[in-house]
Amino acid sequence: MAGAMDAPPRPIATPCIKVCVVDGESGLCLGCYRTLQEVAGWQKLGEAERATIMAELPERRSRIRPEKLAMF
The domain containing residue 21 runs over which residues? Predict the structure, then answer.
């Protein structure tokens, strides 16, 4: 049991690319395509919930006008 306690915690997977700008139209971050609620609560979500959101991110990109994405 002590060996398991010594292991460092696994890093939390995140789509963050350190471009934290929220698009007012879509409500999505222009860097990672998450909502503010998702960004704020990311650490509290379970692995399955984070995986589900991450799987949705490529489709979410289409909800942001291309000229806004061209800035980054």
Answer: 14-69
Return the structure tokens found at 26. Answer: 């879509």
Q: Is residue 26 part of a domain?
A: yes
Specify the residue for token string 């471009």. 19
Distances (CA, A) of 18 to 21, 30, 31, 60: 9, 10, 7, 18
Q: What is the pLDDT of residues 20-49, one digit of tens each?
A: 999 999 999 999 999 999 999 999 999 999
* pTM recorded for the entire structure: 0.84
With respect to residue 5, please indicate whether it lies within any of the assigned structural domains: no
